[in-house]
Amino acid sequence: MTENTIYHDDDATHSHIEEKTVAVLGYGSQGHAHAQNLAESGVDVIVGLREGSASRKAARQDGLTVATPVEAAAAADVVSVLVPDNVQPDVYEAIEPELEAGDTLQFAHGFNIHYDQIEPPEDVDVTMVAPKGPGHIVRRQYAAGEGTPGLIAVYRDATGDAHDQALAYAAAIGCTRAGVIETTFREETETDLFGEQAVLCGGVTELVKAGYETLTDAGYSEEMAYFECLNELKLIVDLLYEGGMSEMWDSVSDTAEYGGLTRGEVVVDDHTREQMETVLEEVQNGEFAREWITENQAGRPSYGQRRDAEKAHDIEEVGEELRSLFAWSDEEGNREKANAP
Ligand code: NAD
Ligand code: MG
Ligand code: MG
Ligand code: MG
Ligand code: MG
């Protein structure tokens, strides 16, 4: 087991970023939060958005200067790339001529650098500050005087100052108020992809569907199968999030605890672990990245088919009906858009 260093406010020197001009490309989830937090921390910010982009109005209303991505990059020392990952290579191509020796290219996810979709010049620093939360939380926490934990990584240190500057960026968006964990582009990218594929998005939905289908195939009602295999997942996840596995096991009945401890490993067995290793290998050797890039270049045919099939699953129909019975769930904020992993 390895443990990574965690940085706090005291470790960061704001002057490394305060004297710089930062171009924030994109004004979506992360972009709006980074841009506003940086500006309120005293950093000169220019938001880079395409002519005609709907986000332009929002950025101006928030009191920020707006330019095209190329103009913003030209004026900036630090270019923070916060457009969607799949459009980053195209946006980068346009701004590359504006990067000067000693400038910084800053990311919130490592995919395009790690898989060589963006290859910045040798004399440019390449860093990552990735909040572990969606942008609206990053913004809300900062405004409340708090912070969202984040990750920091340096891919290329051309100036000798890359790490200090990234830490100052992390401080300026509020992350060091909570804690910033040292990582690498490789570790962040590979663990992110593996986690969302094997556990969070892929693993959980397949587990839910398999449980639901096992019950309905055995003649149980769709409503009961939905409640037991999907709806109640939230209670379990909330407990895991708050207090880890111990709190979850403490909170459920002894019957649930004994049954879970003995039967969980029957379902997720050595075969599943071997399959997880295969999924991880395809992340590590770049096979997944190549497949996803090709899929995008081809106009996402397989992605579209799989999306449609998932939407057509029985559990979605019964779920829509049953969720409407929980009239209070909107007010409680339970359906607030979660952090996209
Ligand atoms: P987003 O989809 O919310 O925002 C995209 C922004 O980019 C919008 O303002 C849009 O107008 C603009 N945009 C789209 N296409 C463009 C183009 N061709 N040219 C110029 N601008 C364009 O994106 P996001 O979720 O904030 O993701 C940004 C980065 O942050 C990604 O690298 C992502 O992996 C990373 N990240 C996201 C989260 C999250 O919770 N959303 C968390 C951590 C890291
Ligand atoms: Mg410049
Ligand atoms: Mg039960
Ligand atoms: Mg993630
Ligand atoms: Mg991800």
From TrEMBL:
Task: Report whether Nuclease shows up as a keyword of the record.
Answer: no
Positions binding substrate in this chain are S253
**Which cofactor names does the annotation list?**
Mg(2+)
Catalyses which reaction(s) = (2R)-2,3-dihydroxy-3-methylbutanoate + NAD(+) = (2S)-2-acetolactate + NADH + H(+); (2R)-2,3-dihydroxy-3-methylbutanoate + NADP(+) = (2S)-2-acetolactate + NADPH + H(+); (2R,3R)-2,3-dihydroxy-3-methylpentanoate + NADP(+) = (S)-2-ethyl-2-hydroxy-3-oxobutanoate + NADPH + H(+)
Q: Which residues bind Mg(2+) 2?
A: D192, E228, E232
| Domain KARI N-terminal Rossmann positions | 1-183
Domain annotation KARI C-terminal knotted: ranges: 184-329
Binding sites annotated in the UniProt record for Mg(2+) 1 = D192, E196
> What's a Pfam family this protein contains?
KARI_N
Q: What is its EC number?
A: 1.1.1.86
| Top-level taxon in the UniProt lineage | Archaea
Look up the record and give one Gene Ontology term from the biological process aspect: L-valine biosynthetic process
Pathway per its UniProt entry is:
Amino-acid biosynthesis; L-valine biosynthesis; L-valine from pyruvate: step 2/4; Amino-acid biosynthesis; L-isoleucine biosynthesis; L-isoleucine from 2-oxobutanoate: step 2/4
Which UniProt keywords are listed?
Answer: Amino-acid biosynthesis, Branched-chain amino acid biosynthesis, Magnesium, Metal-binding, NADP, Oxidoreductase
Q: Does the keyword DNA-binding apply?
A: no
Q: What Gene Ontology molecular function terms does this protein carry?
A: ketol-acid reductoisomerase activity; magnesium ion binding; NADP binding
Q: Where is the active site?
A: H109
| Cofactor note as given | Binds 2 magnesium ions per subunit.
Q: Can you tell me which residues bind NADP(+)? A: Y27, G28, S29, Q30, R50, S53, S55, G135
Q: What does this protein do?
A: Involved in the biosynthesis of branched-chain amino acids (BCAA). Catalyzes an alkyl-migration followed by a ketol-acid reduction of (S)-2-acetolactate (S2AL) to yield (R)-2,3-dihydroxy-isovalerate. In the isomerase reaction, S2AL is rearranged via a Mg-dependent methyl migration to produce 3-hydroxy-3-methyl-2-ketobutyrate (HMKB). In the reductase reaction, this 2-ketoacid undergoes a metal-dependent reduction by NADPH to yield (R)-2,3-dihydroxy-isovalerate.
Q: Which HAMAP family match?
A: IlvC
What the entry lists under NCBIfam families is as follows: ilvC, PRK05479.1, PRK13403.1
The record's listing under PANTHER family reads: KETOL-ACID REDUCTOISOMERASE, MITOCHONDRIAL (PTHR21371:SF1)
Q: Which family does it belong to?
A: Belongs to the ketol-acid reductoisomerase family.
What protein name applies here?
Answer: Ketol-acid reductoisomerase (NADP(+))
Per the record, the gene is: ilvC
